[in-house]
Automatic annotation (TrEMBL):
Name the record gives this protein: Transcriptional regulator, TetR family
Residue ranges constituting the HTH tetR-type domain according to the UniProt record: 19-79
Domain of life: Bacteria
UniProt xrefs under PANTHER family: HTH-TYPE TRANSCRIPTIONAL REPRESSOR SCO4008, TRANSCRIPTIONAL REPRESSOR
GO terms assigned for molecular function: DNA binding
Keywords annotated in UniProt: DNA-binding
Pfam families documented for this protein: TetR_C_29 (PF17938), TetR_N (PF00440)
Residue ranges of DNA binding: 42-61
DNA-binding in keyword set: yes
Organism phylogeny: Bacteria, Pseudomonadati, Pseudomonadota, Alphaproteobacteria, Hyphomicrobiales
Record region (Disordered): 1-22
Amino acid sequence: MAGSGGAQGAKAARTQDPEGTRQNIIEVASQEFALNGLSGARIDEIAAKTRASKRMIYYYFGDKEGLYLSALENAYRRVREGEAQLDIEGLAPLDALRRLVEFTFDHHHQHEDFIRMVMIENIHHGEYLERSKVIRQLNVTAIGTIEQIYARGLKDGLFREGLDPIELHWQISALCFFNVSNRATFSHLFGRDFGAPGAQEALRRNAVDMVTRHVVRPDRLVTLGL
């Protein structure tokens, strides 16, 4: 009797909070996809770890590919929402650029599932990402942020002319992405724990320095102490 009441309570909770249930499914699915890939993840396993039934997962997402795409969109949404919360407009251009690099490094370090999801999507040659208008729109804002910082730095005579904001986004992403994607292999290859706090602090500082030195005009490097 108690078991029946618990099941009814869970069902009621799902009915009363459909968005919470949907988000719970996405969060659990993201972990499964990051660990096992699209082909290796199982809907049965995902359902067993959520507040939802297998039938409900299919109701919300259609099929496993639909769930995977929703998880991928959610991963990108999180990083862009974090960027949106940065007080970049209130900072000088160089400080804003540094803050953006720091945020990207910290986010990737703290959300390793995001890195694995992106790696898996690259294995699929971006096939699912290409289907998503949501992800493309989210990344418009990412480039817009860099364009704004770069334009202000140019106006102040601080940044070099002729840089491409999309390429700058690529370079920031590369430094911060590699820190997670290749940390284990580099640590084993060279016998140094690149995940240790001291190593992470140095890599974070170096990522900021590399980007700022690339963007700042050569004649301004000395005066800025770079």
